[in-house]
Design brief:
alpha+beta, elongated, two-stranded antiparallel sheet
């Protein structure tokens, strides 16, 4: 069993990870290598795009992380609606009402 503080910390970690995954650009996934080859009428440039990782790997990690984030949000929200705090009634009094 985990505490609410641990759940809130995990939520922050998941949110940061999701933001990082969202910021991955197509150029981060692929590496472009240029190879020069001699052709019979001059020099040709041949460009190859090589994947550093598979796009479906990025999608799978994004989906998994966002699912975990939604689930932990649901647990935190349930605690938010069902937990009663003692001794804080005085914090709900405005200055002009005291």
């Amino acid at each position: 069993m985990k505490t609410l503080a641990e759940a809130l910390l995990r939520r922050k970690e998941l949110q940061d990870k999701l933001t990082g995954i969202q910021n991955i650009k197509a150029m981060d996934i692929y590496e472009v290598k240029v190879v020069r080859r001699k052709a019979h009428e001059g020099i040709d440039d041949v460009t190859a795009t090589i994947p550093k990782l598979e796009f479906n790997q990025v999608c799978a990690e994004y989906n998994y992380t966002s699912s975990q984030l939604r689930q932990i949000d649901a647990h935190i929200q349930r605690c938010n609606w069902t937990t009663e705090l003692e001794g804080i009634d005085k914090l709900f009094v405005n200055y002009e009402d005291k």
